[in-house]
Specification:
It is a single chain. The chain has two domains: 157 residues, Alpha-Beta Complex (Photosynthetic Reaction Center, Chain H, domain 2), CATH 3.90.50; 101 residues, Alpha-Beta Complex (Photosynthetic Reaction Center, Chain H, domain 2). Strands 1, 8, 9, 10, 11, 12 and 13 form a seven-stranded mixed beta sheet that branches. Strands 2, 3, 4, 5, 6 and 7 form a six-stranded mixed beta sheet that branches. The chain is an alpha+beta fold. The chain is globular and about 55 Å long. The two termini are 32 Å apart.
């Protein structure tokens, strides 16, 4: 299910012993286009401090109540490593944050989240990592230390979702609109589409652009450059933000550009992996 960033912004983060606060922004990886952290304003109980909450700890969302339950306590949040969410987050900050909660690193694998596609697959109580603390030995600790040293100076490429709103969209033959929102896949936290408002060009038509079609983003000039033409965009299926986006509409979008949908490629990858010799 795809959700608008605007719809998810006011969701409450509920720890096991009470509410932590409300989601105010998201930090996404601008290489993989995956939301890595929720920026949460804690409110009066923690002097309105802003904290990062990883989707790794989030359980099944309560969409009716607009709540994200997380498998951590308020005390853990209170004592978590301090991070200035208004400044760039370094890889060292990430390591400290993930290590504090006992989460494995999400980078270095072939999936969106380590070796898998879903953030909860990295949860300490899930599958491969269920008994990681009990089973860890000196070799594993040495590997973890080596991995930490190898990646401690990496650029995590984390960007604020709110910052991208309003960026100008440039096709190969000229400007055509601006980013009005993002559509996030609920179970993987992948940013699947940029919502583009073409009000000043095509009579207010809104369309969807996949991050896959972006050639580059100019973070100084606040612009997104895509490898499509203005005519292609003009003739693309119109997106209505008041309606839920279904797979039929997504298929129409990809068919319009003669491309294969991300879901079909994922299914093919899964089948290939299943057929590999054990």
């Amino acid at each position: 299910m795809l959700r608008s960033m605007h719809d998810l912004e006011r969701y409450t983060i509920a720890a096991t012993d009470g509410n932590v606060g409300e989601v105010k922004d998201f930090l996404f990886d601008d290489e993989e286009w995956v939301v890595r952290y929720f920026v949460v304003e804690t409110g009066s109980w923690l002097s309105s401090r802003k904290v990062l909450i990883s989707p790794i700890g989030i359980q099944k969302a309560n969409l009716k109540e607009k709540v994200f339950p997380v498998s951590i306590t308020k005390e853990q949040v209170k004592d978590s490593p301090s991070v200035n969410t208004d400044k760039p987050i370094s890889r060292q900050h990430e390591m400290d944050h993930l290590g504090y909660y006992g989460y494995p690193y999400y980078w270095g694998g072939t999936g969106l989240w380590g070796a898998g596609m879903y953030p909860y697959s990295l949860s300490p109580g899930f599958g491969l990592y269920a008994d990681s603390k009990e089973e860890s030995d000196s070799t594993e600790l040495a590997n973890e230390k080596a991995n930490r040293e190898l990646h401690q100076n990496d650029d995590p490429n984390l960007r604020s979702c709110k910052t991208v709103i309003g960026y100008h969209i440039h096709a190969v033959d000229g400007e055509l609109g601006h980013v009005s929102g993002l559509l996030i896949e609920e179970n993987t936290m992948a940013v699947r589409y940029l919502m583009v408002d073409t009000t000043n060009w095509f009579s207010g038509k809104k369309v969807l652009i996949s991050p896959e079609w972006i050639e580059n983003i100019d973070w100084i000039d606040n612009s997104v450059h895509i490898n499509l033409t203005r005519h292609q965009i003009k003739e693309a299926p119109e997106y209505h933000s008041t309606k839920d986006l279904n797979r039929e509409h997504e298929l129409a979008v990809y068919d319009h550009y003669g491309l294969t949908g991300y879901w079909a490629r994922a299914e093919k990858t899964n089948l290939t992996e299943e057929n590999q010799p054990k």
